[in-house]
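In this supplementary section we document a worked example of the pipeline. Step one takes a protein sequence of length 670 as its only input; no multiple sequence alignment statistics are reported here. Step two produces a three-dimensional model, which step three serialises into structure tokens for compact storage. The input and output of this example are shown verbatim.
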Amino acid sequence: MEIGTCEAEASEQWDYVLVAHHRTQRDPRQVRQQQFLQELRRKSFHIKRIQDQKLVFFGIRADNSIFHLYRTLLMEPEGPTPHAELAAPTPVPVTTSLRIRIVNFVVMKTKTSAGETFEDLVKDGVFEARFPLHKGEGHLKKTWAGWRHMFRKQPVDEISLAHPSPRQLTHLFDNDGTVVFAIFMALWATVFLEIWKRQRARVVLHWDLYVWDEDQEEMALQLINCPDYKLQPYQHSYLRSTVILILSLIMICLMIGMAHILVVYRVLASALFSSSALPFLEDQVTTAVVVTGALVHYVTIIIMTKINKHVALKLCDFEMPRTFSERESRFTIRFFTLQFFTHFSSLIYIAFILGRINGHPGKSTRLAGLWKLEESHVSSCMVDPWVTHKFRSLRASEARHLPRDPELRDWRRNYLLNSVNIFSLFDEFMEMMIQYGFTTIFVAAFPLAPLLALFSNLVEIRLDAIKMIWLQRRLVPRKAKDIGTWLQVLETIGVLAVIANGMIIAFTSEFIPRVVYKYRYSPCLKEANSTVDCLKGYVNHSLSVFHTKDFQDPDRIEGSENVTLCRYRDYRNPPDYNFSEQFWFLLAIRLAFVILFEHVALCIKLIAAWFVPDVPQSVKNKVLEVKYQRLREKMWHGRQRLGGVGAGSQPPMPAHPNPASIFSARSTDM
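The serialised model returned by step three reads:
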């Protein structure tokens, strides 16, 4: 067992662990391992080595001097005394989250004399894993990661200390209330975001992050890791931006092309199943095409998600962002854009294209001149972590014994949990954004989506809690005042939802044709009798006439000698079957409705955003009061240094020493 110079302290805490395979002293990788650990010791890190059969665990702890330096660089008060500059030095209150964040940053930035980072050493097998330890989370396991507390308010404060955070059916949406519902959803999306912003402001004040500066902390951590750190200025290259824009457009075109490939597959599958030698397939062609098409679409999404993530990372690296936060923000925008087209291209095709480019009887649009295009018809992530965790546990239980050392038992238990990475929370955010997009963008087509999303999220919260507490290693905590670029993504989805719902109502529902018929062609215009149904004759009005003699080969059509004409859904006139005047009039009304709907809905969104402030007035007043009290203290101290001119015997005591304590004070929000 290897113990550093200060490892025998009674108050020692090992919050971070490195894992490696046991190797002989002659192994070159063992030499590189010792060089890296020596670099950490040189930076005042204490290391404790415990061997467990084939693995070696290294407990990592930073010296208190590092946290003193962190506080000094960020000009934070030392201890609870409101007059820290006059008080004697006091022990720095260091939270577990702060220790983990600083240790993780230094470990990832430390380089050996050969210039190798920890990631380089992992790739070469020098180290296997790194992770912070789960500590003090027994209460969370009972109150957060449990099904009995599904409707319990989220324990935000405790989490902050433990982790970073057929036709009858179409009437359901194709009715006069659809427009009102779609506008309501646009208003709801805006109010939802505004209420979320207000709650975010309260939590940020409560966690004392209201005046926290991310760039300042990033520079402080860099200086702690390397005192000779040189500032990296902001850079912008029009050449790089142009290349990234072109590559992004190429990827978007690829996503749209994938949606078209799925269309081609469904057409070919329909023809294949129709001519199949299996009799049961001939009667279930539509079902077979839909099921296999869904499977192909699912596989396509999985493959393209991996490709999109790789491409987005490469584009971010090519752009050379200044900090990790900037890189994360740009990666979020690029990855979400690609994922948006991956997930929604097929839905956009189904909503606005399917069945609308098929031509008309006697002249159908065919793929390669052979296959007729498909027509529109009137019609958990929790398992994977659990299985992975059980598999790792079974592999590690070959010895069938528990180590005697309680520290080693704890470290090995944490090691056997599923690994986490920078995408662990990112994937959760992406999942929520895609769900939010489905819920808002296509809500006019499926009004039950918000209700299903509510039930899904109630379950998802507990699944994520169980996954983070029981099945995964601890995430490295990070300070954050908000969800960053994801908020812009939510606002963008809100705008896209207004546009999409307006187009769905205008182009895919019967709302506009019914309204036009009611006020231009209906019998109510000729009869003043209020009992007359204004939509009487609408179905017949919406059907076009086709003469069977106009088929390209009418003799081959069975029964054509007994049928002289048929009706189909469209607005065309024989004998040339061009679009009728009613079609162009309806098209103009549809476009006018989309423009009017979007302007009304967007105006309502803007009014709602203005009416509900992002930050509650109580939060603004509390921050203002803290600033006022700090200025009074500085004025008093200044007068004391000048000889006590105009100064009282005691400094003015602030009503609230810090934002966290004033959070509980009562005041008016609006």
